[in-house]
Amino acid sequence: MLTTRHGVRVLAAADLDEFLALARRDPVVNVFAIHRAQTTSLEPRWLGGEMWGRYEGGELVAACHVAANLVPVQATPEDAVVFAERALARRRTASTIVGPQQAVLPFWETVGPAWGAPRDARWDQRHLVLAGEPEVDPDPGVRLTARTDLDVLYPACVAMYTEEVGVSPEIGGGSDLYRTRVVQLISRGWSFARFDRGELVFKAEVACATPDAAQIQGVWVPPHRRGEGLAVSGMAAVVAHVRQRISPAVSLYVNEWNAPARRAYERVGFRETARFATVMF
């Protein structure tokens, strides 16, 4: 393994404590990377990729999760360029680059000419956090989902993903893998929904969690039920469930142009703490 006082090297299990100390400087923004590190011990076979660390004077100053999701961790613009230059020396494996704007933008400016046009790029996403009680009453009908809900829940998950990402998760034979992910979230107690006479009218999931924070994904209300306040009371219920059972702080990020969602999250009590950007291939 490369050991260096300066530069970039692949982190391993022996580096876990040092990595966690770095990432916990902002445990909510870095919840994904912390979750991945804790569940894989930075072993490449479990990461499905690598965790890179940048050192200055023998100290770990920044990191980058390099797998299907490429995620800078505590990276300055200078750190991001260094990681990007290393990325250019290998084949692109990432399907998504996501993280704080200050790192994603210079990373993309460096790799973009070689990596080609992305399928989509979202340069202004609001990272929101709620670390207290919701400011509206939770919907008492929102509950943990169960395997018996799968026939109704799974099509809603596909619809949400397709609407949000722009392509179906089932393309290319991905339905089995995506269904497995939905079942995994149910099994972990990370999937929430409200049903109205057998119809799913609100859903959301925990994407990743640590003892410090949980990140929400997949918030969705079917188009014909939007405008009824289901997302507001539903998200209040999710926050209450998560803070009681999983983590004290609840986070998510939302596209700048999604005004209805931003208004709903603000009513629940979420406040902006950072700006994210996402590039998708």
UniProtKB/TrEMBL annotation:
Q: Which GO terms describe its molecular function?
A: acyltransferase activity, transferring groups other than amino-acyl groups
One of its Pfam families is DUF4081
For this protein, the record's InterPro entries field holds:
Acyl_CoA_acyltransferase (IPR016181), Bact_Acetyltransf (IPR050832), DUF4081 (IPR025289), GCN5-like_dom (IPR013653), GNAT_dom (IPR000182), UCP21603_acetyltransf (IPR016794)
Top-level division of the source organism's lineage = Bacteria
Which keywords does the record carry? Acyltransferase, Transferase
Asked whether the keyword Transferase is assigned, the reply is yes
Establish whether keyword Aminoacyl-tRNA synthetase is in the entry. Answer: no
Q: Which residues form the N-acetyltransferase domain?
A: 140-281
This chain's protein is named: GNAT family N-acetyltransferase
Q: Which organism is it from?
A: Nocardioides humilatus
